[in-house]
Amino acid sequence: MDLGFIESKTYEEISIGDTATTEHVFTNDDAMAFASISGFRAVLNSDEQIERAGGVQPFGPNMWCASLISGLFSMNTPGPGCTLTDVCLSFHHRIRAGERILARVRVAAKDDVTKRIRFDCNATNSTGEAVFTGTAELLAPSTKMRWSTLPLPQVIVNNTYRHYLGMIARAKAVPTVRTAIAWPCDEVSLGGAFQAFKDEVIEPILVGSEAKIRGIAEKLEIDLGMIPIVNVAESRSAAIRAVELARKGEAQMLMKGSLHTDELMSAVVSREGGMRVGRRISHVFALDVPSYHKTLFVTDAAVNIQPDLETKIDILQNAIDMMLTIEIEQPKVAILSAVESVNPAIPSTLDAAALCKMVDRGQITGAIVDGPLAFDNAVSSEAARIKKIKSRVAGDADLLMVPNLEAGNILFKELQYLAGALAAGVVVGAKVPVVLTSRADGELVRMASCALGVLLAKPAPQRS
């Protein structure tokens, strides 16, 4: 094999006794990559499997091992252009994540008439136990083939559930929260609310047209049972009534149904009958980004359009308080701008510097804050190292604070549609958390948004 090329062996060049071996440490990501191809969904939640296995690594799919011998045939003996015609494997021990698997193939027989080659195949685990034994038959290429090789592509396992599942599990472990759902008058919003009720996360109060709600429930074949319905004729009135329930303490959380966000938020921020408590109300997204090592929060990408410094103080403190409530201690906050240097021509860098000084002097509390930071420095320690930025936040940010709604909206949608992120969101700084969902949100995102709100909600007073 020349550097950059791989050359096959013809039938005549292969001798009985020729062998090839390969080693690979089996990982959870290997199991999930295999699951995505084979459809073996049970392997996807590795955390749940570890819990069920009593804290040890779960077993993986043994058929994954067959890919190792396939790689040996295609890259070593016979090499490019061979055709696999028969495989018979017997499995003896299951594999676990973290085990080193040694696979070996050996030429056992050749048939000069059919030009078939029979291989003995086996694999062993870290302790030398046989994982599988068996045979394979191949046709070697009739003429030599020489193919150029490229580095193997890096596979990022898009396990979009790993952070959200923990959040949902925590929400299920606390008492249910009375939740006023404003205008749940389509299948998605009513179905999502009912699923959260079935999972014992919320205690819903449906605020909307009773006729529409019951009609949708009948269509979905769900039994609303004793779930209370506050009959309101139109969506704007439903928003006002749901806010009223929260303001009076009859609901500890507010959730958007199928009405427009503006309708609900107008009622929430109303100075007469809204849910203001002193600070500016703001929004926080909790993003499950497959390529990032933890949940990534973004504020404010949904409520405050062009916040001034005074508003940014409230936005930042709201988000920090939220993260402390859900037990993220000393969250690391990156205040984003286009550059990491203070530049009078870029107002967001001046705001970032002022916010950091306010943190230094205790005017904003509860977090480690740095800025201005460009996006690359905030999420990549390597980028920060190359730019010689010394920061406790760089490369490990929990929260990204964007300069305005426009930048935040673009950022979270880029992460959604190009990086495969899921985006749950909640409005903070009001009397109760407000869960805002989009019509495009799937069931998991809706449940994660609901779970985030539940973790933020104050316990309901006990009913007499």
Structural class: alpha/beta
Number of strands: 20
Largest sheet: 11 strands, mixed
Assign the CATH class of the largest domain.
Alpha Beta
Label the CATH architecture of the largest domain.
Answer: 3-Layer(aba) Sandwich
Poorly predicted runs of 5 or more residues: none
Characterize the quaternary organization of these chains. Answer: single chain
The CATH topology name of the largest domain reads: Isopropylmalate Dehydrogenase
Percent range for β-strand residues: 15-25%
State the separation between the terminal residues, measured CA to CA: 80 Å
Looking at CATH, the homologous superfamily of the largest domain is: Isopropylmalate Dehydrogenase
Q: What does the overall shape look like?
A: elongated
Describe this structure in words.
With 464 residues, this protein is α/β, with parallel strands linked by helices. It folds into two domains: 5-148, Thiol Ester Dehydrase, Chain A, CATH 3.10.129.10; 162-456, Isopropylmalate Dehydrogenase (3-Layer(aba) Sandwich), CATH 3.40.718.10. Helices cover 33% and strands 24% of the residues. It is built from 14 helices and 20 strands. The protein has helices spanning 28-38, 46-52, 66-75, 162-172, 187-198, 210-220, 235-247, 261-269, 309-325, 347-360, 375-379, 381-386, 405-419, 443-456; strands at residues 5-7, 19-25, 59-60, 83-91, 95-96, 100-111, 116-124, 130-139, 146-148, 177-182, 202-208, 229-231, 253-256, 282-288, 296-299, 332-336, 368-373, 399-401, 422-428, 434-435. The strands form four sheets. An eleven-stranded mixed beta sheet has the order 12-11-10-13-20-19-14-15-18-16-17, with helices on both faces. β10 (177-182), α5 and β11 (202-208) form a beta-alpha-beta unit. α4 (162-172) crosses α14 and α7 packs parallel to α8. The longest helix has 17 residues, at 309-325. The chain starts with a strand and ends in an 8-residue tail after the last helix.
